[in-house]
Amino acid sequence: MAETLRSSAQTMMAAEQIIPPPPAFAAQALLGSHSAFVKRWQDSVENSEAFWAEEAAELLSWEKTWDQLFVDQGECRFHWFSGGMLNASYNCLDRHLTSRAHKTALLWEGEDGSERSFTFRELRDLVAQFAQGLAAKGVKQGDVVTLYMGMVPELTITMLACARLGAAHNVVFAGFSAESLGARIGDANSALLITADVCYRRGKEIPLLAISREALQQCPDVRELIILERAGSPPLPQSSSGEHLLFPPQGGASHFRESSWQETLELAKGQQHPAVAVPSEQPLFMLYTSGSTGKPKGILHSTAGYLLGATLSCRYVFDLNDRDIFWCTADQGWITGHTYGLYGPLSLGASVFMYEGALDFPDWERVWRMITRHRLTIFYTAPTALRAFIKQGPDRPRAHDLSSLRLLGSVGEMINPRVWHWFYHTVGGERCPLVDTWWQTETGAAMVSTIPGAVGSKPGSAGYPLFGIDLQVVDENGSEVARGSQGYLVITRPWPYMMRTIVGDHQRFIDTYWRQLPGCYFTGDFARRDADGYVWILGRCDDVINVSAHRISTMEVESLLVAHPLVAEAAAVGVRDALTGQQLQCFVSLQPRVSADSSTREALIAYIVRSIGSFARPREVVFVESLPKTRSGKIMRRILRDKAEGREASGDLSTLES
Ligand code: WTA
Asked: How far apart are CA 506 and CA 456, in angstroms?
């Protein structure tokens, strides 16, 4: 802990100056003064029930309003807006048809430059029709549907179609392997998988269908695989029931049938499934993320609370208005893509831009060209991407007309002051506020940020807790530390858009988040609050590392490695990396008579990629005779990190094994 804190502290001492909101922006912003923010924030935490009630009534459309705003049922079962009924797809689509039917809801660009766009009416019609198709296949309220599709409009349509039926979606990032996909389908108890034949990245086809079929070998309960055809598949064969089958059953070998996404839509032609009003707490989705133990956690989010957080933060943090075209570069397979690539902007009736493919393909100008071409107004991305842009030529954005931009955002890891200034000056031309948003898959939406027209930024600090959110920086005993000191970041009370549980393991939810420091939500991050109340995030205090804004559990990698027949013992650590934030490095001692050569190394790397996905590829696998351990047998990861980062092993080594 001391090491992480020391190095982060050095970074932040560099710049504590306040950059005020650009005046032209502040003049037209929803909240345009610091005092207005402070007053509203204070009010929002002192009278929090009134605050949440007022925002929920104003921002969301309800079939029936709630009877009780907040109910603590004990055992960390928190219910918000009890008795309320609503539908997320209605809120994102139908309610906009009176005034925005012909406005663009979704604009998509493929890696090959092809474009598609959908008005709110078109998107609503497709969603309602596809929901009807899913209903015809037996999908109903309370079911779980897994999606493994890549970044295509049909992903958005499918997610909203699930929401329309009250079924929970479980989106799996297309970079995950068959094994990870299968594990997520099984854990979520999902009977249906929707995929595409391929998706495209860096000009290559990723064989999603082949991966899906392999994954389903470990999922005996899945009865159907629906496939979006993108690669110009041959004409569909006809089944005896008259329904088209994408791939005819092969001698009954599979336990699941295969059908086509387009056919599912086509069969429901002319029919529109109504938006089913569901209770506030109906699960809207689950999303798997890495935790500090080996097994990924299925983070479950509710309908009303989550949608309120997504909508509210879009309104205040992104100052979203009717003319905005919001580009969140995160993949929809992660929480950022859910909240800011779909639910938040659409719920407010803003247009969303979606891009399939790599940001640097075919070259590093791609991003700036897309902003210019589509006149995008909000650009929300991760520091790892910004560092890559700087490396490829810091002046490149200047060659493009980026005048459509009015607000910039950063998420996923601490944005270093140097990168902050580059983004603000070179991309934003000093006229766009830059909001640094701290939050987590678990929190559902932004928790700490600046309010762009009202609160100045300190580059490197995420800002203040948002409305209705109260946080503290505390020591091991849960006592608040003095301003300026470092400690654990906790949220002091439940909030509507927080996760509700871990799928299938409520006890783990209690233990991980609510029992570490009793009464508080434990974020797993170190932080410091400065004298002005700004929050500085200093990184994780658990075994989760952040590689290019992807969360990877070092424990998950370790448990995989020790399960491999060639491996005796293993440790995985995160080491600092100038481009990606952190990189994964593994230390492995091999079983007797296994040679420590490049083919063993390659085999272990391939095994990790196969088990998790290519984004978890370790930078290095180092073979060691034995791992440094304490007398009680715990692996001393700090020493391994020091070694990996080229430092002399520090601290007390007297307890080392050898
Ligand atoms: C880190 C992504 C510093 C943090 C939304 C958190 C950040 C984890 C920031 C959650 C930020 C996210 N500044 N660190 N602005 N945003 N983090 O679940 O360690 O993928 O706990 O959610 O990313 O990652 P997750």
From this structure: 40
Residues in the chain: 658
Q: Residue 464: which of 431, 443, 490, 437 has the closest Cα?
A: 437
CATH number among 3.80.30.20, 3.30.390.30, 3.30.300.30, 3.40.50.720, domain 548-644? 3.30.300.30
274-287 residue pLDDT tens: 999 999 999 999 99
Cis status of the peptide bond prior to 362, with omega within 30 of 0? yes
Distance set, CA 380 to CA 278, 340, 408, 484 (Å): 31, 9, 6, 29
Pairwise CA distance, residues 641 & 658, whole Å = 18
Note the helical H segments in 107-207: 120-136, 153-165, 178-187
Find the distance separating the first CA and the last CA of the chain, reported in whole Å: 24
Do residues 344 and 371 touch, judged by C-beta distance below 8 A? no
Computed over every residue of the chain, the mean pLDDT equals 92
DSSP string, 38-65: HHHHHHHHHTHHHHHHHHHHHHS--SB-
pLDDT, tens digit (0-9, with 9 covering 90-100), for 18-72: 999 999 999 999 999 999 999 999 999 999 999 999 999 999 999 999 999 999 9
Q: Which two tokens stand for residue 284?
A: 């809207």
CA of 440 to the centre of ligand 1 (A): 5
- Asked if residue 220 lies in contact with residue 379, where contact means CB atoms within 8 angstroms, the answer is no
What is residue 169's predicted lDDT score, i.e. its pLDDT?
98
The domain limits of the chain are 548-644
Q: Which two tokens stand for residue 255?
A: 């336990």
Instruction: Say yes or no: CB of residue 443 within 6 Å of ligand 1.
Output: no
Would you state the pLDDT for residue 650? 52
- Give yes or no for residue 129 CB within 6 A of ligand 1: no
What is the pLDDT averaged over residues 338-354? Answer: 98
pLDDT, greater one: 642 or 212: 212
Tens of pLDDT, residue by residue over 211-265, are 999 999 999 999 999 999 998 654 444 455 545 455 544 444 689 999 999 999 9
Using one digit for the tens of pLDDT, what is the confidence trace for 542-594? 888 989 888 898 888 988 998 899 998 899 999 999 999 999 999 999 999 99
From the CA of 448, give the closest atom in ligand 1: 15
116 φ, ψ (degrees, to nearest 5): -140, 145
Q: Cα separation of 410 and 91, whole Å?
A: 26
- Answer yes or no: is the C-beta of 297 below 6 A from any ligand 1 atom: no
**Atom 6 of ligand 1: nearest residue by CA position:** 440
Task: List C-alpha distances in Å: 79 to 48, 284, 518.
Answer: 15, 14, 19
Distance (Å) of CA 192 to CA 6, 167, 337: 48, 11, 22
Helix (H, G, I), strand (E, B), or coil: what is residue 198?
Answer: coil
**Predicted model pTM:** 0.91
**Is residue 453 a contact partner of residue 32, using CB atoms and an 8 Å limit?**
yes
State the amino acid at position 510 in one-letter form.
I
Within a 10 A sphere around the Cβ of 600, how many other Cβ atoms?
17
